[in-house]
Amino acid sequence: MKCCKYSRGVLQFGLSCSVRYETYPFFNREPGTSSMGGNKQKGLRTTILASVGAFLGMIGILTISTYYCSKRRKNPTRRERIKRSHDTHEELLQMDLATVKEATNNFSFENKLGEGGFGPVYKGIMRDGKEVAVKRLSQSSGQGHNEFKNEVIVIAELQHKNLVRLLGCCAEGEENLLIYEFMPNTSLDAFLFDTGKQAELDWSKRMNIVNGIARGLVYLHEDSRLKIVHRDLKPSNVLLDHEMNPKISDFGMARIFGTDTSQANTKRVVGTYGYMAPEYAMAGLFSVKSDVFSFGVVLLEIISGKRNKMLQLPECAGSLLTYAWRLWSEDKGLELVDPLLEGSWDASEMLRYIYIGLLCVQANPNDRPTMSTVIFMLGSETAPLPQPKEPAFYVADSFTFESDDQSSLKGRPDSSNDLSITSLIPR
């Protein structure tokens, strides 16, 4: 470490000072005396005192530098903490490729659960009978290895019931694999947008999913050891356990924020069209309010049972947000509700959820609530709600669509630092 090298330098300097004083005693000569006369004893005494002083000074500086080294080890910088976290967790969670291949029947088609933005996901059964989900990052993805490292760093630090749990990882040769707890009900979109399964999501289950997602985001933004912005919240990244409880997944695009940072800028815009906040899609600016926007879109999709980007209604101009705002403005908000939910919801409660969804998708990030405020509003019938303005609408036709369902946005080249964002904007 630099501080240790510094300490050795101080030691060498102190010793050299002692040598100089002993070698050249005439520097200690008192005025009016001769270096060749009868004051040799005084010169020797002065030399000894000077040497002792230099030695004591050296000890003091060495003590201070040692304290600095110890303090730095106890309080490492954010970059050092991230690197140590990465090294430690990758070692602790490492699984060998042969074991993963055996669990997934060599990544057989029969074991394939689906295809994500950076590669397929397979079901696996470990030797002890435990079911797992294995994400195999695509070898053709230019960002595959970076996404792998990022996800290991981020999710290994997180522990919350509404976040999917990472069980292990594997990096051998060209294979980058992430092993998660298995979610038997797959993802939210598999139910929400499937006409054969939509009816299984009554309003009670949908409310539970909405509140679970919100709690997971509050943990990421405010309560975890690391301040995390997910950047790709959408129904396919919300997994459902055997009781239909939601767990946010896929942290490959997540970014770690410093505690004194509220907004960041990136040269590489990644995410999914239809769920991205306009300031992020158009200018690369993202913050916790970017996740709030995505949450608002997901909330309106859960209420309506319709995709934001796939709404095929002439009066909607292709956008669920447009449709929801028009209905709200005309006091017809309840017409947004999925017909399959008929009879299972309370009108005032449903209108409050729609209201909150519209607040979350405001064009100005400052007009959007924080996720902790969203939790409060969802659970309180008397919480004051500000008047929503017209939601954000934008066309991202300047981007190339690819990856997850050909809908991820790819902009300019990525930052050279794959563990952080390009520039930070303090509070």
Q: Strands of the biggest beta sheet: in what spatial order?
A: 1-2-3-5-4
Highest-level CATH class of the largest domain: Mainly Alpha
Largest sheet: 5 strands, antiparallel
DSSP strand content:
5-15%
- The residue ranges in which pLDDT falls below 50 over 5 or more consecutive positions are 18-28, 394-427
Approximately how much helix is present in the residues?
40-55%
Compute the number of structural domains: 3
Question: What is the number of strand segments?
Answer: 14
- Tally of helical segments: 12
Mean model confidence by pLDDT: 77
Shape: extended
The name CATH uses for the topology of the largest domain is Transferase(Phosphotransferase), domain 1
In CATH, the architecture of the largest domain is: Orthogonal Bundle
Radius of gyration: 30 Å
CATH 4th-level superfamily of the largest domain: Transferase(Phosphotransferase) domain 1
What is the H-and-E element order? HHHHEEEHEEHHEEEEEHEHHHHEEE
Class of secondary structure makeup:
alpha+beta
From the N-terminal CA to the C-terminal CA, the straight-line distance is 33 Å
